[in-house]
Amino acid sequence: MKIAIVGASGRMGLALIKATLNDSGATLVAALDQPGSPLIGRDAGESLGLQTGVRVSSDAEAGIAQADCLIDFTRPEGTLRHLEICRRHSVAAVIGTTGFDAAGKQAIAEAAQEIPVVFAPNMSVGVNAVFKVLELATRILNEGYDIEIVEAHHKRKIDAPSGTALRMGEVVASALGRTLDDCAVFAREGVTGERDPATIGFAVVRGGDIVGDHTVMYCGEGERVEITHKMASRDPYAVGSLRAARFLLERKNGLYDMQDVLGLR
Ligand SMILES: NC(=O)C1=CN([C@@H]2O[C@H](COP(=O)(O)OP(=O)(O)OC[C@H]3O[C@@H](n4cnc5c(N)ncnc54)[C@H](OP(=O)(O)O)[C@@H]3O)[C@@H](O)[C@H]2O)C=CC1
Ligand SMILES: O=C(O)C1=N[C@H](C(=O)O)C[C@H](O)C1
């Protein structure tokens, strides 16, 4: 399968280039970056000490048009632009970017009527297993437990809470028969009053090079359950993305996430 990667100089872009080179069934056909990036014209593997034979380009249209699947971990505005190119050239898309607003999510759903798309806030198998565990834990701990979600990421992350923490909130809220929009508490400061048991609270840590930690706490009287996932590398996101690209090869259109790719639906 022919893979195009956008955001080629980013943290995930580099992990994806490495994973694509290590995948015997995948060929890197385009590595794309924004105009002005110092890597334009250089070999896409240069900063990894690898030789790919593919030069980083800023011509997204030409690069994406050559691929079977685009893998995009950039920013919402960039992803939506790339998705239009995928649409024009009938190229599948794996979207890992987080931080979309409702209109952005709607635009992805519309594009997926024409091309196949995997859109997931976390591509790791481990985190997707945790989503399933949370469904079960929440159904069991559905009364008498205050639910709080804590996430920690590196200092350069620009969106908060993480897409993964929000998805965890959605999974928990859905298992309680609620919607996250109605019960999320994203900030507390000053005299907040007592905690409303119907809420799901979020707390965010940013610092250093933390790849990504997530904990869901079920705080009861006299006991506490904590379900934690910790990433030590970005490789599982990249390997999961290639798994998603392979899943899309056999599909003509439709919006999927990693639960579909992993058969966890
Ligand atoms: N779903 C998942 O499993 C995961 C999702 N993510 C998400 O992926 C995204 C990227 O994360 P990360 O790699 O750490 O970020 P980086 O900032 O390291 O990389 C982002 C890349 O995208 C490029 N870029 C930024 N804005 C645009 C734009 N408007 N158009 C085109 N390219 C653009 C950047 O170029 P430049 O440097 O020139 O700005 C850079 O190459 C985030 O939303 C993050 O939350 C991250 C890890 C896992
Ligand atoms: O920006 C990151 O780094 C990550 N972003 C994703 C998110 O927002 O959930 C996935 C992972 O947590 C790393």
TrEMBL record:
Pathway listed: Amino-acid biosynthesis; L-lysine biosynthesis via DAP pathway; (S)-tetrahydrodipicolinate from L-aspartate: step 4/4
EC number: 1.17.1.8
Primary residence: cytoplasm
A GO molecular-function annotation: NADP binding
Entry annotated with the keyword Nucleotide-binding: no
Record: active site: H153 (proton donor/acceptor), K157 (proton donor)
Span of the signal peptide: none
Database matches in Pfam families: DapB_C, DapB_N
Substrates-to-products reaction catalysed: (S)-2,3,4,5-tetrahydrodipicolinate + NAD(+) + H2O = (2S,4S)-4-hydroxy-2,3,4,5-tetrahydrodipicolinate + NADH + H(+); (S)-2,3,4,5-tetrahydrodipicolinate + NADP(+) + H2O = (2S,4S)-4-hydroxy-2,3,4,5-tetrahydrodipicolinate + NADPH + H(+)
Top-rank EC class of the record's enzyme: oxidoreductase
Record-annotated Dihydrodipicolinate reductase N-terminal domain positions: 1-123
Protein residues bound to NAD(+): G7, A8, S9, G10, R11, M12, D33, G96, T97, T98, A120, P121, N122, M123
Protein family: Belongs to the DapB family.
Subunit structure: Homotetramer.
Protein name: 4-hydroxy-tetrahydrodipicolinate reductase
Organism: Rhodocyclus tenuis
Lineage, opening ranks: Bacteria, Pseudomonadati, Pseudomonadota, Betaproteobacteria, Rhodocyclales
Protein's gene: dapB
